[in-house]
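Narrative progress, year one. The postdoctoral researcher (J.K.) led the effort to move from monomer predictions toward full complexes, under supervision of the PI. The following entry was the first complex the group processed end to end, covering 308 residues in total.
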Amino acid sequence: MINFRDYGRLLVDEPLNKHTTFKIGGKAKYVLFPNSEEDLIKALKLARGENIKYLVLGRASNVLVDDKGFNGLVLILKSLDRLTIKDNKITAACGAGLRELANFALENSLSGLEFAHGIPGSVGGGVIMNAGAYDSEMKNFVKRVRLLDKDLNILDLSNEEMDFGYRHSLAQDKGYIVLSAVFELKRGVDYSGIKEKMDDFFKRRSSKQPLELPSAGSTFRRPEGYFAGKLIDDCGLRGLRHGGAMVSEKHCGFIVNYNKASSKDVKELIEMVQKVVYDRYKVKLVPEVKFIGGDNGDSCNNGNEWSR
Ligand SMILES: Cc1cc2nc3c(=O)[nH]c(=O)nc-3n(C[C@H](O)[C@H](O)[C@H](O)COP(=O)(O)OP(=O)(O)OC[C@H]3O[C@@H](n4cnc5c(N)ncnc54)[C@H](O)[C@@H]3O)c2cc1C
């Protein structure tokens, strides 16, 4: 067996449904939780040397992992979760939760990241996806990002160099790994003001989103000039079921796993929704969720699944 064990907690033949917010996904040959940046780099070197394909995950809240699993190394970065502060700048390691980051900002009376409190992802996943909510996004507060390129060189890019866009960053296109990010936040709002905003966002989120069922958040990107959820609702697809997957009754933009859904159930339901919406409105719905593993191979829309 390849000796990934030196670099963190290792699980072999591990079902990925135990790790994804969708609660879907077959086995990965190896799952490693690296202890440190250095261990991450060493594990990547080893995987490359052994010709093992690999991918990184943060909190696995934006992925649909295939039922056939992933025949390689999945690096789950959530142990790299250090948060430090200097003046109004927070440096967050890639695996820190966005919730923990937002709470850390709150404790230090720094405002800006209230929107991120309810997003169940990591700093790395949030930065690479330019996660956003309530008219705000990571781009507005990221000052610099430390990354690993595919040759394992460390890069330090500014906000502008990251070329952030709607759920997009340069790092996604290039398949870079986010190691950490510096967030520049605002002083001048007191603790209670920040807390009130966070609580308000949380109430709005839990009243509108199906947080009680497993999902990967919004299934589709927002098509220009439309809202995916409204288009789906207007087509009469609210509550549409396929196998164990369902268009959420609470928010049509979410596909939920209501009864032991397989990745096939979800994919087929995505295709059904795409077809009906296209036939009626001529609008193409593009998945925001990343497809990982199985036969997705090079055609999968995940920029961070690498093989040599
Ligand atoms: C209930 C619910 C609500 C949600 N609400 C929102 C919302 O309001 N706004 C929003 O934008 N998103 C939302 N999401 C989606 C998701 O939480 C975000 O996209 C989040 O940023 C993903 O982070 P993650 O760590 O879970 O990424 P993962 O799902 O682990 O990975 C997603 C992609 O990022 C890559 N990746 C992860 N970490 C790194 C890293 N360190 N370096 C390089 N690549 C990396 C992975 O390879 C994969 O391609 C929601 C999801 C759920 C389940």
